[in-house]
Amino acid sequence: MSTSTNAIEALVNREYKWGFVTEIEQDVAPPGLNEDTIRLISSKKNEPEWLLEWRLKAYRHWLTIKEPTWHNVHYPPIDYQGISYYAAPKKKELQSLDEVDPELLRTYEKLGIPLEEQKMLTGVAVDAVFDSVSVATTFKEKLAELGIIFCSFSEAAQEHQELVRKYLGSVVPYTDNFFATLNSAVFTDGSFCYIPKGVRCPMELSTYFRINAASTGQFERTLIVAEPGSHVSYLEGCTAPMRDENQLHAAVVELIAHDDARIKYSTIQNWYPGDKDGKGGIYNFVTKRGKCLGRNSHISWTQVETGSAITWKYPSCMLIGDNSVGEFYSVALTNNYQQADTGTKMIHVGKNTRSTIVSKGISAGHGQNTYRGGVKILKNATGARNYTQCDSLLIGDKCGAHTFPYIEVKNSTARMEHEASTSKIGDDQIFYCNQRGITKEDAVNLIVNGFCKEVFRELPMEFAVEAQKLLSVSLEGSVG
Amino acid sequence: MGPNGSGKSTLAQVLAGRETYEVTRGEVLYEGKNLLEMAPEERACEGVFMAFQYPVEIPGVSSAQFLKAALNAIRRARGLEELDAMEFLALVKQKFKVLGVDEKLLHRSVNEGFSGGEKKRNEIFQMALLEPRLCILDETDSGLDIDALKIVASGVNGLRSPGRAILVITHYQRLLNYIIPDYVHVLVDGRIVRSGGKELALELEEKGYALIEGGAGAAAPGRR
Ligand SMILES: Nc1ncnc2c1ncn2[C@@H]1O[C@H](COP(=O)(O)OP(=O)(O)O)[C@@H](O)[C@H]1O
Ligand SMILES: [Mg+2]
Fold first, then answer.
1. Residue B114 CB contacts under 8 Å (≥ 6 apart), including other chains
2. Is the whole model's pTM more than 0.90, yes or no?
């Protein structure tokens, strides 16, 4: 039908709507990476000496290791000397939101993230990171009354040194992997969050990451510590302007859950994916790991990955405390020429530890989607259980889905379940929907949302709706 | 009516707008508009409904979501307000009652794991919900036992009205004991070779298609 073809073409050519650039005076470090770069970052941030030393150790280690190649993603060599490692909007020492550059506030408003507290979604505190620095953290005072610390990483490094020093690198050591090591050397900002004993955080905490400057990398670090019996739900979102060049994003997230603590970490990743021919887009190499240190602790990762030219991330759980629980719920979508290699690792150390993995990969266009999972049951993990469900959905016939589940069991009492499926959206399904009045795009959304519902269910309410919308925008033009 | 392979399903699919069929010649006028120029979903919104010979399974999509999306798409096209979840549920339950459909259907994925009879009944239920003006039923009776057949037939009969045309495609006279047709057309080799009243179906049952085909030359001289 000519009418529907035209409609689809119009959709394909629709732009990534978060792709604008904010015109703002920037303080940008010249490209290049050496010890001076790291000293510059550290001094810009007024960091204590030990942190600079830690960065330098990481950098020196980084020089001795090679970029990994085991993954199923392909990209031209990254020129690490061509990247600028620090960019910040000019103007510093903000005392309150009133002092934030109005251009920046407008940027976040355009992104649907109003930072003025009265206009905020009720029950969500936001930290906004623009390129390398945090520009605003909302609801700080209200949280402080409960003893909750929620601030930028830079601030934490100065104001809450003991905590940062105790936990930084305790889950993802600076020697962990090439990208995490690089991050440890050059990380610029991120969020820090501390929930004291027995406190249930009364609102969602959320960080919104925005890359703006050209030719810069973004290397943020997030650290969340949940003391015994505390609960917190945290959400991160991310977008970037459309640029023809690829930009590197290498973040590290560390979570620590003590006895009976519960951390729920949700991500809606919508970095610029590149254009329909695969030009531009963010290279997203991220290390996320949580330590269930205490008994009955619980860490749950939920991610909706629709953006980035390349996604490389494996939010994992180390289940150390007895009876601790790790969960991973993931939707990863690759359209056009996007590539994703994502999954999780669940390391069962303590007794009666349980993990659940639900991975939903959607491939459209020429997208390549890889699930990579590792479940390890160590010798002392008596009574450990894992359930893995890994489903792939294909749209069209030029895309690919791949699965690499690794299982290693060293305790004979372990119970493992693994289910996997691959399906394709069929023309007959689309036609059936069409015949009932439903357009092609809506039919695909209906099917995709049905496919993802076990994951969306895990997202906080407001964000589940957001995720559905995002998925439908990301799939535009994938049928026809 | 017509023998296997005579083009009945093809006709139904072409009317519904299935894109795998290429119409090389002719036009299809429906309420003064050329159907062939419309996308399948536009035809559906204009009131064309086809009950599938083989209803399609859509795993993961609940019938409730599917029906609501369909109903609201069609309501929008008709300039009516979309129904919210509560209004939708109320309407669906009322239609369920009329057709004796189990409410559990709403929570099941579209057609997934349905028995043959359930699938066919679901098609008729959707027809009742969407209130089309041209209904095409492609072998809705095949594979049904007599009880299911009666239910489907009474569903169809309940929808008969002067403002609604129903095209029933079937092999067998059996269904026509329950749905009494106004007209019977016999399709052979892509052409209507005979038309008549309900007696024609009885005659076919008695004599078989072979005889009709034999006499088709006279009835349709233009046949290639
Ligand atoms: N008008 C036509 N032109 C070309 N091929 C046709 C036409 N009508 C039917 N066919 C072909 O004949 C085959 C059987 O048709 P179908 O519609 O399934 O028959 P029925 O439903 O009557 O059993 C199909 O494969 C179809 O492609
Ligand atoms: Mg047929």
1. B55, B57, B108, B122
2. no
CA distance A374 to chain B (A): 27
Query: Is the Cβ–Cβ distance between A107 and A121 less than 8 Å?
Result: no
Residue A253 neighbours by CB under 8 Å, 6+ apart: A172, A221, A222, A223, A224, A265, A286, A287, A288, A289, A315
CA distance A420 to chain B (A): 15
Which chain B positions have a beta carbon within 8 Å of A433's beta carbon? 41, 58, 66, 69-70
**In one letter, which amino acid is A184?**
S
Total length of chain B: 224
Specify whether the CB–CB gap between A344 and A373 falls below 8 A.
yes
Comparing C-alpha atoms, which of A83, A86, A103, A73 is closest to residue A45? A86
Q: B38 and A429: CB-CB below 8 Å?
A: no
pLDDT tens-digit profile of A199-209?
Answer: 999 888 888 77
pLDDT digits (tens, 9 = 90+) for A176-192: 999 999 999 999 888 89
Ligand 2 centroid, distance to B166 Cα (angstroms): 17
Alpha helices in chain B (DSSP H): 8-16, 40-45, 63-77, 85-99, 116-130, 146-159, 199-207, 209-219
Give rounded-to-5 percent helix, strand, coil for chain A: 25, 35, 40
ipTM of the complex: 0.93
Q: Measured on CA atoms in the order A131, A136, A139, A143, is the torsion positive or negative?
A: positive
Chain position carrying tokens 């007959």: A428
Would you call A446 helix, strand, or coil by DSSP? helix
B130 touches chain A (CB under 8 A): yes
Query: Which ligand has the nearest atom to the CA of B20?
Result: 1
